[in-house]
């Protein structure tokens, strides 16, 4: 989970925990508290989904960067091989010319 998303989720959890009410059942205050708790839970679920999306994309991006790095290394190795073989061929042609 991304650090910022983790911090937001933790802050929302602390805020929700602080707002939870223990009023007697059936009272208007209790009904309001239940409604607020439901809203807080929805907000926490939204934050959790957002954090999961960010983590998913961060994982995909790291995976793509790794493939890109491997492809770059393979290209450089191929370039070195072609350069060496071309140099060897040029040297061979130069030697046969004399």
UniProtKB/TrEMBL annotation:
Disordered: annotated segments: 14-38
Amino acid composition bias (Basic residues), ranges on this chain: 16-25
Protein name (record): Uncharacterized protein
Natural source organism: Cytospora schulzeri
């Amino acid at each position: 989970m991304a650090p910022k998303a983790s911090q937001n989720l933790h802050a929302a959890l602390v805020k929700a925990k602080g707002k939870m009410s223990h009023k007697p059942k059936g009272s208007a205050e209790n009904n309001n508290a239940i409604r607020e708790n439901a809203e807080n839970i929805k907000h926490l679920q939204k934050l959790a989904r957002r954090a999961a999306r960010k983590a998913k994309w961060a994982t995909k991006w790291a995976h793509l960067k790794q493939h890109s790095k491997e492809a770059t290394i393979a290209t450089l190795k191929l370039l070195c091989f072609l350069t060496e073989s071309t140099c060897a061929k040029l040297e061979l042609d130069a030697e046969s010319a004399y």
